[in-house]
Amino acid sequence: MERFKSNGGEHVNPAYDANLDEPPVYNGTSDEEHRTVRPSVVSAFGHDTLDRVPNIDFYRNAGSLSGHRAVRPSLQELHDVFQKVNVESAVPVDSGKGVVKFGWIRGVLVRCMLNIWGVMLFIRLSWVFGQAGWEVIPNHKRVTGTVNLLTFCMECQKMSIFNLTGLGIVVIVLSCVVTTITCLSMSAICTNGVVRGGGAYYMISRSLGPEFGGSIGLIFAFANAVAVAMYVVGFAEVVVDLLEDYDSLMVDEINDTRIVGMITVVFLLGIAVAGMEWEAKAQIVLLIILLVAIVNVFAGTFMPVDESKKKFGYFGYNSDIFLENFAPDFRGSETFFSVFSIFFPAATGILAGANISGDLKDAQGAIPKGTLLAIVITGITYLGVALCVSASVVRDATGNATDLIVPGTVCNGTAVAACKLGYDFSSCAEKSCTFGSMNNFQVMTLVSAFGPLIIAGTFSATLSSALASLVSAPKVLQALCKDNIYTALRMFAKGYGKNDEPIRGYLITFIISVAFIAIGDLNAIAPIISNFFLASYALINFSCFHASYAKSPGWRPAYKYYNMWLSLFGALLCCAVMFVINWWAALLTYAIEILLYLYVTVKKPAVNWGSSTQAVTFVSAISNALALTRVKDHVKNFRPQILALTGSARCRPALLDLAHSITKNYGLCITCEVFVGPKSEAVEEMNAGMEKNQLWLRKTKRKAFYAAVAWESFREGVESLLQASGLGRMKPNTLMIGFKKHWRIAGKESVQSYVGILHDAFDFEYGITVLRVNEGLDVSHLVVEEEEMIKAAKEQQDLDKEMMQNGGKSRALFRKSRNSSQQVAKMNASLAEASTQFKKKQPKGTLDVWWLFDDGGLTLLLPYILTTRKKWKDCKLRIFVPGQPGRCEVDREEMKSLLQKFRIECSDITVIDDIHVAPRPESMRKLEEMIEPFRLRGDNVQTEAKRQQPWMITDEELSSFEEKTNLQVRLNELLQENSKSANLIIVSMPIARKESVSDYLYMAWLDVLTQDLPPTLLIRGNHKSVLTFYS
After folding, report:
1. I want to staple 597 with a disulfide (CB 3.0 to 4.6 A). Which of 215, 565, 660, 779 is the partner?
2. Rounded distance, CA 464 to CA 461, Å?
3. Model pTM score
């Protein structure tokens, strides 16, 4: 057997490193040497010991940036015989000096507030309202181009939301509820371990696995890249509008928008590429401008109202105005849900801080604190602005200073609040007015203390959101590519500088944003982007629920203010909001996510993050296994559960493939190996090969488990496997073993062990199947040769590379090993071919079933199962049964009737009525030559010798079992005559009574029965029914 060596030969517990990013690096050792046992130290216990006290460095992942990963003493170092060794040296670790890291205020709070406030001024929402058919938009103010102006956006939101004061509060609160629940779930996830770069992608992928994370990560990065274009176009629209007011257009509106947009995105790219420190400084400047603009609005509402502003509907704070605006006044086709769909994207942006999680000093503390506070501050801001405008501006105003109320007029009907304040705006009920909070696009300018600051705030909102998205997209893409989920995107994983800046990611984000700026029409893609963000929120909530539901011991979030059912509600709420905003965009989002999910599932990336999906799978398996224990066995539900003695999973592929063909996805198949020898050596070899063999089974798509035991003897090892394998009802019931081809030269201990295993299997009521292939089953020597040749080829490749680097020519020292697998096959072509014969699709032919003894039906059931498999579907069943001379037709009809009741179809039924005929003399001579070396001669010595050598054959034994011996010889003759061309022969296996039939005689029976035939499978059930004709 081969020894599997990890770094330094240490036995690595898979639970030791949850992420399995890479194997640990052991200091002072090479890959070919065992790790040096570390010396004892004076510990906290006051004496020398190899044991170490608990320390955080033992639990770090390989390549951890926050500290050097220490390696604790292995169990073998503490348990094995002590060896005095030298002290191992420590490896200096780069402390990461010079890396820029942000705290929770600059890294999370500022970014989230800017992104949420920026979305409030998001022009896409205004465009939706502009297209909804507001007849109140005058012709000279009708918005042109791809997207509405930001000022129009802001006023439209006041029209449709802030004047529905009562329901407007509900809209804002409901939006905050969705984001708050998501933030609580995100806080739980990010405090359940160290959070690296990648934000939402990292959290979802580590919680739900690469399939969910890989699918949402790609579309989330793309959404951020396109969002850059949308924010920049919004900024450009406002600039172009100002240019138009001063008659300074360069070309025309649409082309000027493209020019300004591209110049802006180049400027933003320069800030981002300059480094996170510059980007953070720019965000601070933009935040200050935006805060001043917001304060400007609030301050303006407390200043005395100029008389010139009253004709436009602004009167300052007034209870009558507030009460009049409280009731909803939906106009046109607008409803609560349409208004909600317009406002909700303004509440997004809560992932702006999480997206740069790799650049935070303490992501676990910063993300929950900064994001929650940002939601509270921005939510209060939205409510404050909404209430201020609703309490000071009437819905409709004429803008005519002469529309005054005649003293003594009774105020009723429409515009009552304005009437009480001395203005007659009742004409707005009959015709569209151009002023008031429902009509005037300059309400914010009208209310504010200094109008130009609103434009500055608009610039700040759009640029800050664009900059945040420009930084987020490359960071998420880089984290996704580092995990190598999509191999084609691997090039974007590379980072530059001490901050590991994703320069390539910046460039691809820049290209995408420029492309969409050039297209100009963002209206179609806008709903999809909003749904992309919501899909991320939904999966974050579901990740928290799923991790809590799995109840994995590894789910221990430091943040306790979450609830699994609240997270599930949040996930469902996000899905509902997706359809409220845009149903077709929601369907498209799901379709894209499902396609990416299926792609990642098919590719099966080689990662193991200990996801909650794995935990739930384990819990489900345990639950189902326990449920099975409450179900009594029934013959209709019998399935062959095979324990295959293959040795190493690669050593007997034909045996494994046949077992796998029978069990496939519908039964249990365990491939077993027994390590024989001194316990210390056998256990070491066994531990080294466990993961290697299971990995080979998985890669070659054999649906089987690998099990191994270490014992002093082979028979004892198999006996333990027969007794202890399986779990509950999922327990093997059939032993599959290869025929011992070289039994005549193997030695008595080996033969005794082999026959003893068959006896043990019968004792434990197993069914037995013995496979014989003339070329043999064991290809372990070919496996060794192949691995040696592959190793030699690798050495040759490394040598060639080294020679070429030094300017020399490569030397073909191992040139002969280039095509290793072909050469191995040529060394033993027949064995190599035979070892793969059951892996391939079987040609048209027959499965010949010689059902000689009723064993409960296993001899018939297994070949029937084979015919239902894809590889064997072209093989027809032929049934051979023994019969009495003169009644062949009766026996055939009886068997035909039985098969019909079993619903088993066969192409032919043959009754053998000459099975009792004596075998030919030449056949008997072959048997005699076969057993001659194992016979005891002489009547006087046989009794005593038999006691001392029970495995030997005596004349008395041959005489007692003469008929049974002759039957095996005769059966081989019949098999030669009738089944020489079969794809597979299935024959009822003879049973040897314990302590009556010697081991060598029994082996002779099996040998003579199956020699010189196509692949033959001997089967003997445990004589309990596995077939029934009852429903």
Report:
1. 215
2. 5
3. 0.70
